From TrEMBL:
SUPFAM superfamilies: TerB-like. InterPro entries: TerB-like (IPR029024). This is TerB family tellurite resistance protein. It comes from Bifidobacterium pullorum subsp. gallinarum. It comes from the Bacteria.
């Protein structure tokens, strides 16, 4: 399923407004996504689109059924199906971008998650796929929150940098997993594998474990060292760095679905408009 770029952007705006608490991070994410999925024209119609959505939000705010009215506005925006993938947003990318907006300020509200789950059902995103998306986003958010704390901690550059570098690698791994998960919807289905299914899965899991498990253990050890050097103020968060990376590792293991190199390439090409977003979260420092 595909929806037009403008309809997708309207749904993003309603999501931002649903919990009555709009943050600068959410606005910045909205603009980042808009510029990514429609780099040529977004700036030309942004204000008109936002004004129209804002009027709808203001009307909903006068009602005791505010949440339900905004859900209806999203349904109306996503009602028309666009079959032209060149100028549209796929259902999985739509949902991923909504998750990105909701977690842009460090965590999603319950109303935001309720709306996103509704959209996932409305657009036909499989429940298992949505759960994998949500877990990937939660893992990314946890790692990035730890990273931001470490960057502002009392640890020295030499102590903190190796841990930050590992966290950057984990974020990149989560991004690749998200690209593949979304790309699976767009890419042609590969032919029957030449090797037993068990061998394919085992091979993928081995690659994940090689990349994540050692790194998580290493970060836990380094976090303990930095905590000793940085003092008690930094220690509680530093001790959680390894657990955040382990969470990311488990999410990636669940999300990765081994497919051929050519299919992965086609999937990435199909996602070109959003390659730097997913939904901009990974580019934040």
């Amino acid at each position: 399923m595909f929806v037009s770029t403008k309809d997708a952007l309207s749904s993003y705006y309603y999501l931002i407004a649903v919990d009555e608490h709009v943050t600068d991070e959410e606005r910045d994410m909205f603009d980042a996504i808009g510029n990514d999925i429609d780099p040529q024209m977004f700036g030309n119609y942004r204000e008109e689109l936002v004004d129209g959505c804002r009027n709808t939000v203001n009307q909903a705010s006068l009602s005791t059924d505010r949440f339900e009215m905004l859900v209806e506005a999203v349904d109306d925006a996503l009602h028309a199906v666009d079959t032209d993938a060149q100028d549209a947003v796929s259902s999985r990318l739509l949902v991923w971008n909504m998750l990105s907006i909701s977690f842009a300020d460090g965590g999603a509200s319950e109303d935001e998650l309720k709306m996103i789950r509704h959209v996932a059902r409305h657009c036909g995103v499989d429940r298992d796929v949505f759960q994998e998306m949500e877990q990937l986003m939660r893992s990314a958010s946890a790692v990035l929150n730890e990273k931001r704390y470490l960057e502002s901690s009392n640890g020295t550059y030499a102590e903190i940098k190796p841990i930050i570098d590992e966290m950057n690698k984990r974020c990149a791994a989560i991004q690749r997993a998200a690209e593949q998960l979304i790309g699976d919807e767009l890419a042609p289905k590969p032919g029957k594998a030449k090797m037993p299914e068990k061998d394919i899965i085992d091979h993928a899991k081995e690659k994940i474990e090689e990349g994540i498990a050692p790194a998580a253990n290493w970060v836990q050890e380094q976090a303990a060292n930095v905590a000793d050097a940085a003092g008690s103020a930094a220690k509680p968060v530093l001790e959680h760095a390894g657990s955040a990376l382990n969470s990311a590792g488990h999410a990636i293991e669940g999300a990765l679905n081994p497919i051929g190199d050519e299919v992965q390439k086609q999937a990435k090409n199909a996602l070109g408009a959003a390659k730097n977003v997913f939904g901009g979260l990974f580019g934040k420092k």
